[in-house]
Amino acid sequence: MRPHQLYGGVPLNPHNLPSYISSSQLGLPSPIPRHVLDHALLSPLLCTVDDDYPAIAPNLSAPHINPEPPTYCLRFCPVPGYHHLLGLANEDGRVAVQDTSKVLPKIPLTGFSCHDNAIFDIAWAEQSASTLVTVSGDQKVGVWDIGEGNKGTKVRELQGHSRSVKCVEWRPGTETQFATGGRDNSVLVWDTRDRSDTVPDNAIRGAHSMGQGGKRKKAGHLSSPSFSSPQGVVTALAWVDSNTLASSGDNDGVVKLWDLRKNYSLYKREPLPKLELTHPGPSSTVGYTSLSLSPCHNYLYTACMDDTIYKYDIVNGFQEPCARFTGASIKNFFIKMAVSPCGRYLVSGSSDNWAYLWNTASEGGPVARLGEQAAEVTCVAWSAETGGDLAGLVTASDDMRHQVWRGKGEQEEEKVRARVEMLGKVDKKSEHSPFRPLLMTPSTSNKTPRRGLLSTPGTGKKRQTPSIMSFLTPKAQLTPVLESPVNVTPTNETKRGLKRRQCDFNDENCPEQPAKVSRQDSCRNLSTSISTLYASPTKCNFTPDSYKSPRKLLVCSPMKLSTNSPLRLGSPFKLFSPLRELRTPLECMRSPTANLPNLMVDGTSPRAVRKSAKKKDIKGTNWLTSYAKEKKQVLVVEQTKIKEAIGGLKNHTGGFSKVKQKKEPKKTVKKIVKLK
Description:
This protein is α+β, with helices and mostly antiparallel strands. The protein contains seven helices and 34 strands. The protein starts with 5 loop residues before the first strand and ends in a 20-residue tail after the last strand. Strands 3, 4, 25, 26, 27, 28, 29, 30, 31 and 32 form a ten-stranded antiparallel sheet that branches.
């Protein structure tokens, strides 16, 4: 940003947000830095004396009175027009509704009794501000009508969990369906239109089961649909969309996304989610306390008991978290976390009596923290009503008090209960930014040497490729030379003829010359060559005097005296070039090489591809037919040989004739009698 600039009499400086807005109106390149935006939005937050309220009063009718029941849950109403209504629930099983748009007397809220045990979570219906769902440690789920204010009416009481119910979330886009999770390691989906109060609409049993030694069960482990393993606890739920539900456990370190278009009640094996996000760190404390989604539902935030909040990309399903937020002390499952309605900030309670704020675009430590309380801060909630720059924020602590934080700006010190404390966080420059170009691997040693870098052995200088500037700039003034047969461009006759027609011009264009002639006399005679072509049977439309070579210019050509080349594209000399002439259509022209021998047709060219003469296949035959015929012929020959062999043998009734063996004559043994 340029210094010493004024806009409406106000200097543009990087210390306030209006200066950046003014500079953007002027068209100056001034992106708002993260620390400037945080300071502009978070620094006005404060809690006045009028916004510091006591919690719900204890239940005096209970057999065992708890003088200071802590607040376990805070929820703002999501229905438009009722964002100022705040629902609270405490350990005694009581619920109260507070109107945060009014200044109320500083006395404990009365509320009404809903359960005989602690209420761990509540949820407002998305389309009805008078409908509220509560879950409790008495294993019951209550549906309440709070249209009369602090006197709620019980509509339904559902009993499907075998242990305490820990969390509840209303299904988006519906008025009758919600999901609950409990200590029995099961997730139940209820529909208030069903008549049964004990059978859920869908059930995921053993959602976060763990085997021995912290290992998961095998996929082939059989379990009854009505059985749920007590080894896991469902601690938090969050709806990604109307068909996808995210859940977290207390000791398996896995966040699972379930497709509720399946009926998991019909499966006997361990339920399989459509996506699992495992804990990325080596910590042994891998229990999650709460889940929260970004406004666009593309990122999932999980608060873990290893004092870290993880940010996952659930659209792409990456296993590694996109960011990690540290600084808070999360030591129990009552400490919650929430994302602002704008998605820019993240707030969490902490065991060190502070509430911390992070910018979701800056991972690492927090950017600010809210005033210190007398006990640990457990519950936090954002209001969906954004009347100012930032939505209203409520924090609750275990000292039976809750504070409402508003962006009121400057107030008298006597009326201020607590202020936000900016921590002055400095972002670290990321080494691998997605906006930076990729680093190229140095490959100078592997480059192919170019012709311009080679040096001439004689001079040792680099030989460079001629440029257009060297072509347009004449090195010396050329004097006009008269046209004569002697002044033709000297060149090798054989090479020039091979280049033009792939044959030797000495045999056709030049007469027989003596063995010793000068270099200039050995060049070809164009007039004689053209006359020979003109006398050929093929007619030509040019004369020897009008013939001009389209490729080679003579030294006496007037274009060689010009300093500007007419071949340059866009050159103004191209329109007035002496070479520019009216050309006849191609179909009216005759080729001057029509009477030359065609080496490709004659087959004498060394580059001609010789086609091997192949026998034409008889129509109607293929390889399979020919193979069958050959095999048949072989069989016929073999059968003929066998018949000939059998026919040579004599036939008898017993089959083959026996071969009579010739008996060898017995050798007579002469006995020698010895006379005594």
